[in-house]
Amino acid sequence: MDAPAQRRPAGCTRRAGSYSRAVSTSAPAGLSLWNDTLDTVWAPRPPLGGDLVADVAIVGAGFTGLWTAYYLARRDPSLRIVVVERETVGFGASGRNGGWSSALLPMSLSAMSEHSGRESARRMHQAMIETIDEIERVVTAEGIDCHFRRGGTVTAARSAAQAARLQAEIDEFRSFGLGEEHLRWLERDEAITMIATTKLEGATFTPHCAAIHPARLVHGLAAAVERRGVVIHEHTTVSRIVPDTGHGPSAVTDRGTLRAHCVVRGTEAFTSTLHSLKRRIAPVYSLMIATEPLPQEFWDEVGWHDRQTFADARRMVIYGQRTADDRIAFGGRGAPYHFGSRIDPRFDVDDEVHRALHRTLRDLFPRLGDAAITHRWGGPIGIARDWNCSVDHDPASGLASAGGYVGDGVSTTNLAGRTLADLITSTPSEVTTLPWVGHRSRSWEPEPLRWLGINSMVRLPVGADEYEERTGRSERWRSALLRRVTGH
Questions:
Q1: How many angstroms separate the CA atoms of 403 and 401, rounded?
Q2: Which of 8, 88, 97, 463 is 20 to 30 A from 357 via CA?
Q3: What is the dihedral of CA 232, 238, 240, 242, to 10 degrees?
C-alpha cells in the first residue's frame, strides 16, 4: 500500500500531459553475470527530448536514484519525478556488484563514534539492519524476483593473524553493546558446517545480510517507479549540475536542460566525470568472476546451504556468494586506480587481477577443479576521501546527493533514498537525524598525489597478506601505513 501524500517541495504543481510514461528498460549484455542472466527482454528507454521542467530531477538510474524516486513517488504521487541516465538502468555498480544486501558500512563503529558519538553510531548500525527488512518488504510488495535469500555472512579466519583481526572486530561490537545476535565467533567445526574452506581456523557470522541478484533488483525497481509515474530517460549525459540562482537548480544534459525544484545527484563513482566534482569521489575498480553452475556433489562437500555471503579476513578485500542457479560469484579489489580518475570500459577486465581471483577461489575451494569461469567483469566503486558515505540536502541551492559507499551500497542506497525523500519533502523522521546526514568529506588530492596515494592503498594489502602467508604473523608497518592512507 502506498504511503499517503505528505509534504512536497514548495511550489510544486503537476501539469497534466506534460510527459508520457516510459514502460520498458534496457540491459546491455556482457556487463556482468547479472545482466546476462536477466529473464526478461528489455527495450531501451528514449533519451530526454529537450528542455523539461519537473518537481524533482534525479541524475543516475542506479540504486541511489531509483530508491529516491521510489520513496518520493510513494510519499506524494503527484510529484513530477524525472530520472536521467547517461547509459542504461543499472549500468554502474548497481548492476555489477557482489549482490550483498548487508548492514555493512565503509566506516567502522569506532570511526563514526569519533565524530558523532557512540549512540549515533549504534543508531546508524540499527538503521542498516532495519534497511535489510525494508528491502525484503519492497521486493515482496512489488513482486521483484531478485533471488533474495537472507543467509547472513560468514567471514573466515584462515590464519592466526586473521583470527586476531576478527576477534578484535567482535570486541569492538561488544564495546558498543552489540551481542552475539549481531556478530559471533564460530569455532572451526561449526564454521566448516556453514562453508568449508581450506585452512579454516574459525569464522565470524552475522545474520544481517541477504544474497540477491542485483540486476534483477535494479531493473525491478525501475519498473516499480515507472508504475508510479516516474519517467526515466536513458542515454542522456549530464555535463553540469547547477545550483539555484533564482530560476531553480538544473541538470544540463546533451539533450536539453532539466530544471526542477530539487536536483538529486546519485552518480557514485561516475561523479568524477562531472568536471566541477572531479575530486569529490575517487573511482576505484572492483572485479568479479563467476563459475558455471556447480554440481550437487560440490555443494555436499562445501556446504553453503543457506546461500550465505562469504569473505575472509585477509587485508585484500574479497567477497562471494552462492547464486540461485548454483554458481559462485566471486570478487575482490586489487585493480589499479587510473590517473585523473579515468573511467573506461577497457578497465572492466584486467587479465592479471581476474587470474588472481580465480587462483584465490581455487585455493579456497580446491574441489572446484576445472570448473569453467563463464563470466569476468568489473566496474568502478566510489570512495570519499575519509571513507565515509553520506547523504546531503541543501534547500538553499536545491541540490541533494548521496554516495561514497565504497562497495557497500546495495542496502545503503535504500537508506539513502528514504532519507533523501524525507529531507526533500521536509518530513521529520528518525533517518534524517542519522550521523551521515550532512557529512562533508574533503576533496581528494590533485594528481599525481591522488594516483600515488590510491595505488599505494591498492597495493599495500597485497604485501601485508603475502607477509602473513609466509610468516604466520600479522604484518605491522604496511598495516599502519594502510590505516594512515585510508584514515581507518
A1: 7
A2: 88
A3: -10
Query: pLDDT tens-digit profile of 289-313?
Result: 999 999 999 999 999 999 999 999 9
Q: Which amino acid is at 417?
A: G
Phi/psi region, residue 70 (left: phi>0; alpha: psi -120 to 50; beta: rest), is alpha
What would the pLDDT profile of 225-270 be if each residue is shown by its tens digit? Answer: 999 999 999 999 999 999 998 889 999 999 999 999 999 999 999 9
Residues 216 and 146 sit within 8 Å (Cβ to Cβ): yes
Q: Are 107 and 388 in contact (CB under 8 A)?
A: yes
Residue 460: which of 337, 334, 338, 357 has the closest Cα? 334
Tell me the longest C-alpha to C-alpha distance in the chain. Answer: 70
Residues with Cβ within 8 Å of residue 445, at least 6 apart in sequence:
279, 453
Q: Answer whether 127's CB lies under 8 Å from 190's CB.
A: no
Higher pLDDT, 146 or 480: 146
Q: Which of 461, 478, 359, 411 is nearest to 128 (CA)?
A: 411
Q: Is the pTM value of this prediction over 0.90?
A: yes
* DSSP tag of 407: T
How many Cβ atoms are within 10 Å of 54's Cβ, its own excluded?
A: 27
Parallel/antiparallel/unpaired status of strands 209-211 and 282-291: unpaired
Distance CA 435, CA 415 (A): 13
Q: How many residues are there in the chain?
A: 488
Letter string b/e over residues 285-307, b meaning 16 or more CB atoms within 10 A of that residue's CB: bbbbbbbeebeeebeeebbbeeb
How far apart CA 220 and CA 213 sit, in angstroms, is 11
Backbone φ, ψ for residue 172 (5° rounding):
-65, -45
Query: Which positions ≥6 away from 50 have C-beta within 8 Å?
Result: 255, 256
Place of cell 529531507: 423
d(CA 272, CA 252): 16
| CA torsion angle 191 192 194 200 (round to 10) | 60
Phi/psi zone of residue 71: left (φ > 0), alpha (ψ -120 to 50 degrees), beta? alpha
d(CA 102, CA 128) in angstroms, rounded, equals 8
Would you call 446 exposed, middle or buried from its count of C-beta atoms within 10 A (0-12, 13-18, 19+)? exposed
Summarize pLDDT for 163-217 with one digit per residue, the tens.
999 999 999 999 999 999 999 999 999 999 999 999 999 999 999 999 999 999 9
Whether the CB-CB separation of 245 and 176 falls below 8 Å is answered with: no
Q: What is the pLDDT of residues 421-462, one digit of tens each?
A: 999 999 999 999 999 999 999 999 999 999 999 998 888 888
